[in-house]
Amino acid sequence: MRKTLSLYGLTFSLPLLIWQLLFFVFPLVFLVALSFWTVKNFRMQVDFDSVNWVTMYGRSVFWKAYGTTFALAAAASVLVSALAFPCSYAISFKLSETARRWAVFLMVIPFFTSYLVRVYSWQIFLSDAGIINVMLGWIGLGPYALLNTVGATMIGYLTLTFPLVVLLQLFSLVFIDRTLIEAAHNLRCGRLRTVFAVIIPSARVGLVIAALFAFILSFGDFVSPIYLGGGDPTTLSILITDTTKSGQQWPRAAVIALTMIGTLLVVAFAAVRFAYKGRTK
Amino acid sequence: MTNDALVTFEGVVKRFGSFVAVQRMDFEIAKGEFLAIMGSSGCGKTTTLRMLAGLEAPSEGVIRLAGKPINDLPTWSRDTPMVWQSLALFPFLNVIENVEFALKMRGVGKAERRRRAEQWLERMQITEFAGRNISQLSGGQRQRVALARSLVVEPEILLLDEPLSALDAALKVRMQSVLKNLQRETGITFVYVTHSQSEAFSMADRVVIMSRGKIEQIGTPQEIYRTPRTRFVADFLGSSNIFTGKVAAAEGGIVTLNTPAGALSLASPDPSAHAVVGQTASLTVLDTKTNLALRSPSGRDLNAIPVRMIGEEFIGATATVYLETRDGQEIRIQKSHEELANLPLQIGQEFEAYWSYDDGHLVMEH
């Protein structure tokens, strides 16, 4: 059936369409164009030259950052999914209706505070003279270098993604048909085994989408790797800022940004395909 | 306790908070029988089944399976597979994987598992759908998958919770015969919960009728149909005309009741029914045993009451005539078209409804 646009529908969708056009499609097109411009004597010139792509893709530092970023984001995505699952499982299966509502509310609270503020407060915990090292000092340990490590970056990623991943997992877990779980038990599937044999497959779409969001947010994040990881190892987001600062290389930065967008598109597409694999309408 | 009892309920009570779902229940399920538990919604029939499956724990009493108490046995340690009303097939597994599930949980090897699952698919005539997704199957096909999934482990007992309620009428009848044949061939004990009288009576060897958490009557469909033990059962089956009154006389095997429709008698072959004069009791007579005539019939040992026709209904080969007694009670008569052919069936027509003393059945009020 063909859908025709009505004036009524247009009235409501037009503002959004204009917004998307103005602030998403147009900048994206501009970004693509920008990546073919050239820089001469620290000045950008409108051009159509593949030099930026060739240069960036020929540099090992770019590929190293790319590998680091991808690995960190993938690790964060797996880690946060694994840590969030027991939490969302408990909320959806072990709590009463009222307690569940409170738990969901508590999961929303972190969004009240800016992510940047939360990362700064982690610095207070993790720095050499920070809360954790002081407390360890009381029992004669440390100080340990906690800040400016990969571990600290990972803590930042968890701070960013954990509440969201719990919420996303939760919404797929609470909608699992409880009789499926009873049926599994009834067919001699024990409690723990049911989690892997029935609950995880039933909630697969939600779990994969949650992990995907964790990956997307971590892959593009700038705050954690710079303020908690200390910019070492370099991630792509850090590389973008470095590139723009060194000699007005906005076109090269555009190449990095476009590569990131392309990567996320591929990952998102693969994840959604995997989530719905074997399902037919 | 008889030797061939597979399941016994001994003083089983189930409470949910202050609500009593099942009141003190004592009954046995024989090995190899097809038992139907019937009642309207909320009567405790599903709770009874769930206690047997281990999905609910009894608040009091003991449930035994093959002589052993199973109260504290979790459902995954019992062999009491159940077929759910929603079927509860796993949507993320295909047909044969669903059927294999229970075998996999028991640690049966891959090849053996596949072989046994295929046997059941064949038996249920769904072999061609082995690789399909559940969402691609019709209602009847899903039904067969659910049965195969539960029966693949060849259990001693199968629990069924209104499994046919989602099917259309024609398919329902077909699945009834599939179920009945399956039960007969395998000899597996079936416990079948339903609110449908036709399902229970057409398939079951014995029927348990429940109301408000209590067992009203247990018996063969014939027994329950002919001799309902309580007024509730007679009402619930809806196939009898019921006249309630006080016992006026009880001697020589004949009990007479004074009812608003007049004095009615019945032959009571069961001396243990001990009707006491003055007590409230009901006379029930099947609507198929109630006859209709224009004039008062002659003959001994007949009850006859004047009635006026208020409606009729044709279903297939039989007709149901609705009539009203002088005191305003509605009664029904079910006959074939031939039997009614000589009567002027018109609304408002006066008739005499009559039946033999032998067809009357006494139900004492408790």
TrEMBL record, chain A:
Subcellular location: Cell membrane
Record-linked SUPFAM superfamilies: MetI-like (SSF161098)
PROSITE patterns: ABC_TM1 (PS50928)
Gene3D superfamilies: MetI-like (1.10.3720.10)
Transmembrane segments: 12-37, 69-93, 99-117, 124-146, 152-175, 195-219, 253-276
Membrane topology reported for the UniProt record: Multi-pass membrane protein
UniProt domain ABC transmembrane type-1: residue ranges: 66-271
Pfam families reported in the protein's UniProt record: BPD_transp_1
Keywords linked to the UniProt accession: Cell membrane, Membrane, Transmembrane, Transmembrane helix, Transport
Top-level taxonomic group: Bacteria
Protein family: Belongs to the binding-protein-dependent transport system permease family. CysTW subfamily.
Protein name: ABC transporter permease
From TrEMBL, chain B:
Keyword flag Transport: yes
Domain annotation ABC transporter: ranges: 7-237
Residue runs in coiled coils: none
Pfam families, per database record: ABC_tran (PF00005), TOBE_2 (PF08402)
Keywords: ATP-binding, Nucleotide-binding, Transport
Domain of life, per lineage: Bacteria
Keyword Membrane: no
GO molecular function: ATP binding
InterPro entries: AAA+_ATPase (IPR003593), ABC_SmlMolc_Importer (IPR050093), ABC_transporter-like_ATP-bd (IPR003439), ABC_transporter-like_CS (IPR017871), Mo/tungstate-bd_C_term_dom (IPR008995), P-loop_NTPase (IPR027417), Transp-assoc_OB_typ2 (IPR013611)
SUPFAM superfamilies in alphabetical order: MOP-like, P-loop containing nucleoside triphosphate hydrolases
PANTHER family: SPERMIDINE/PUTRESCINE IMPORT ATP-BINDING PROTEIN POTA, SPERMIDINE_PUTRESCINE IMPORT ATP-BINDING PROTEIN POTA
Name recorded for this polypeptide: ABC transporter ATP-binding protein
Species the sequence originates in: Albidovulum sediminicola
